[in-house]
Each structure stands twice: as structure tokens, then as C-alpha cells.
């Protein structure tokens, strides 16, 4: 048999399942989400597997049973009904209202062609979306599954710019349809990094269930230590041999750099960053992969607040309601850093969460790369600041 490859950078479920890649089986959780609540939102940091989750849901709702052969979902799903799927990837939608409109026009045109709709092509975006959902339902006999990936990408770019209000107006116009067209929808699932509750999608679609902090779904994105041992035993051995580490040391190195994420105070299962973990196993070395893949655009917009409070981020407190429900634009640096993956839950009590850095990779990312790149200071000032930060944090 040909050895299975590691899915380094691969976000297509179909490609993984047909291309001889290793797949960490999350399909039991996929089935539970797909057959649970109707309107859902999931927040996870960048590079945490949100897109492959969306892709897996699409393959499930399209009834591609053959792709799931041998996976956990086969114990749950018996009918494999085929539903129409309407999918949006907002990470490519642009930064301005006109670019977002152009993206929706392109996406709607494709679905209008698919369902032979010609009557509404000159209508508003909301009318076009409503008609697509209605006709998809009528023509297939099944309500649609609507999947929205990285919904907040354009809003991150536009926030604190003169065109942000126009962008949110486009969002209101389009996504209000999801609530008014409920009878034509089987399932709605939306992913993002940050949550803009009061100024965009969440103000018009206020019936979304936030799965992000529910204990049963902490591992739906990311990889647990048990999954590493189960699925990547050979790669662990090879990483250890390459670096002259025993098995215990190898796992400790991986944990120190990539583990430590917690997404619910009720379930403190350690979650590894899947992108960094797969890169480390594939390249057989430990390094800062996550920061090298890019930083969220909102970081620069919080830099002043971060600089004032940076010494406190190893152990800081945040109100439970703020972390679970608040808008990122009103929650301060702690909430933003939590949602974007720079901080994670360390403990909880009745009123608050204690936050801190999940691992070495993230701490070094924030101090070594992000802040120096965002401060408008001389190189000497930056170096002095870095040394102070490292001393404060005992890096």
C-alpha cells in the first residue's frame, strides 16, 4: 500500500478522501451539527479547519455517501438525502461595499444559472437570494443548506474605515433573507474568526446558535492529543528520529508549541492548532508556522490597547457574558485576542474566564512579529520594547 500523505494546506474534504490523504475523523460531530439546531455560528481562529468543516458539511448535504465510507458518520446516517447547497466564501468577497456586491452578484448568477432563474437578475440582492432559495427548494423537493465561510473577512478589512457602514448595509440586505426564508432552508451554518454582533449579520439573524463555546463541540476543529496518537503515530516517530528525541519528548515539543487551546470552560480538552501541527509533522521540524501564514487584519486596529495592557495577558480576566456574546469591536483587546487565537481559556468561575497564551508559538507570534510590525517606532525602540516584553514574560 502507498503511504497516506499529510493534508498540508488541503482544505477540500473530497480531495482528502480521494487523494490518499490522512483524515482525522470528525464526522460524528459533523452529523450532530447537521442534524441539531437549524441556525448555527462557529468561531475559531485562523487556520483552524473551518473551511474543511464547511466543505465536509457540503459533501454531506449533497449526499456524497461514497466519500464517507468507513467513517464514524456511517453509524449515524442512514438516509443520505440530497439537499441543494448554497455556499459563500466571504474571504474572497473584497473589502468595500462594491466588491462585496460584486461577489454576491457573481455567486447569485451561478446559482441562477444552475436553477434556470432569469426573472430576478436585475432585482436587488435580497430579492435574488430569496428567489434562489425558493426555486432550489421547489425544483429539488428539499430545502437548502446554506453555508457561509469566513463571514467576517470583509468586515475585518473595513472596520474603522469610512466604508465600513456601507459594507454592513450589504450584509444586512443579503443575510436578512436567511431569517425571512426559513421555510426554504434545511440548515444554516456560518463560520468566522471575530464576531460583529451589533453591526452586521448578527443584528438581522438573531436566531443563530453560537456553537463556539458549547462543550460538545470543542474538538470539531483542531486536533486532540489522542487523535495525534491514533492518526499520526508514524509521523511522530519520524519527527523524533529526525531530531533525536524519544516519543515522550517529541510529544512534549509539539504540545509546548501548538497545543493548549480551550474553547469551553466546561470542557477543557487541550486542542492543537491543526495547521501548525500538520506542517510540523510534514516538515519534521518545530517552528512558528501559524504566524508565518499571515496575521488577522484586525490586529493593527487593537495595537494601542494591546500595548497598554500587554504585560497582563499571561493571566487576564474577562466577564463570561462578554466572551460568549459580545461584539469584538466593544469587548476590548482581550476579547479580540481570544477570538483570533492569541489567548485561550485557562480557567473559569461563576462570573468570569481567566485567559492566557495557549502555547509558545502564539506568545512568540504576538511579541516577536505582530507588535513590532504594527508599531510606528524606530527599529531601536522596537528592539528595546521586545527585550522588555521577553523579560516581563520570561520567554
How would you characterize this protein structure?
By secondary structure, the protein is of the alpha/beta class. 46% of the residues lie in helices and 10% in strands. The chain has 19 helices and eight strands. It has helices at residues 13-18, 27-34, 50-61, 97-114, 125-140, 153-158, 164-175, 177-180, 201-204, 225-231, 233-243, 247-258, 274-283, 289-292, 303-309, 320-325, 332-339, 360-374, 379-393; strands spanning 39-43, 85-89, 144-149, 185-192, 209-210, 316-319, 344-348, 352-356. The protein starts with 12 loop residues before the first helix and ends with a helix. The model has no long low-confidence stretch (mean pLDDT 87).
Compact summary:
With 395 residues, the protein is of the alpha/beta class.
Layout of helices and strands, plus pairs?
Elements: H1 13-18, H2 27-34, E1 39-43, H3 50-61, E2 85-89, H4 97-114, H5 125-140, E3 144-149, H6 153-158, H7 164-175, H8 177-180, E4 185-192, H9 201-204, E5 209-210, H10 225-231, H11 233-243, H12 247-258, H13 274-283, H14 289-292, H15 303-309, E6 316-319, H16 320-325, H17 332-339, E7 344-348, E8 352-356, H18 360-374, H19 379-393
Parallel strand pairs: 1-4, 1-5, 2-3, 3-4
Antiparallel strand pairs: 6-8, 7-8
Helix pairs in contact: 2-3, 4-5, 4-7, 11-12, 11-13
